[in-house]
């Protein structure tokens, strides 16, 4: 009997409780994952902010104003706003750098809250270590200013330069200001205005969406008396908000529910590093594999030929070429992967290197025996 059918029986609450217990007991405990870890709420997201600013206080590692005219223009504009007239005065300071300031504005961030900002150099500055970011407006995609950033920059990279050698560690032209921006404008919208919520799966899958809807329905039927979730497609589950219930509390309740997300049959290989990741649902049909390497070695050993005595001959170089061909044993192996353990055990028994396994997996996929998606990076 399904969970939803149990809700309609005369037993009512008792039958629903038994159905919930059986639903969660049928899943291995080690595979359970919270819904909020595999889903995000549509419309509840961060917003990207960007700004252009100046960093001062550098120890001669700033922009060369002659090579970075935008830094000089920004410096002149800032001084003009502060009441300092520098028009027509050549500037040769090396303690100023033009930077881009980026940040992410969290959803429903309130006025006066602080967010972290990232700083990166725009000009030819060699290091931002020891610098201070001046007041910089951070704008969103709509051109509105949402935050103001300012403060000393924390730089992890270093650059030491002498007359004959330069030592660079990390990236000294990028840094971070923890809690360096103050939110000045809120993003329009309120959570309580949503009559329903759409849970977006981070890894879309029809079965996972159905499992999430079943888990939420089992909980809401017991708590609120009726199922409230419906799987819309492989990437979204629509959940109605119960009446007279705070949206934040309701999302916290369903976010802690646990399900077992379904894993796609997928093999991911990275040819650069030799990394191979095989999913637990990967299957291989019965296939025979022979893998061997043919090595051909060509060696040049020229020799000097001396003429016979009193023959009026000339000394010449005679080429000597040696060609050797060797082939490693290519054993014919029968491979059948009923599960992940069998597949790995069969590949290890053949004594293959990661590069050889990648080649074999590509050949098996071409032959149609690999019942999984092969992703080559």
What does it look like?
The basal body constitutes a major portion of the flagellar organelle and consists of four rings (L,P,S, and M) mounted on a central rod. Residues 1-31 form the signal peptide. InterPro entries: Flag_FlgI. Keywords: Bacterial flagellum, Cell projection, Cilium, Flagellum, Periplasm, Signal. This is Flagellar P-ring protein. The protein has 377 residues and is of the alpha+beta class. The protein folds into 3 domains: 48-183, no CATH class; 191-259, Alpha-Beta Plaits (2-Layer Sandwich); 267-296 and 327-376, no CATH class. The protein contains 8 helices and 24 strands. It has helices at 3-7, 13-25, 35-38, 69-81, 206-223, 247-255, 340-349, 354-367, and strands spanning 33-34, 39-41, 47-56, 96-105, 114-121, 132-139, 145-152, 158-161, 166-169, 174-183, 196-201, 229-233, 236-240, 258-259, 266-270, 275-278, 283-290, 294-300, 303-305, 316-318, 321-327, 332-337, 370-371, 373-376. The strands form 8 sheets. A 6-stranded antiparallel beta barrel has the order 3-4-5-10-7-6. The chain has a 4-stranded antiparallel sheet with strand order 2-11-13-12. Helix 2 (13-25) packs antiparallel against helix 5 (206-223). The chain starts with a helix and ends with a strand. Residues 1-30 have low confidence and may be disordered.
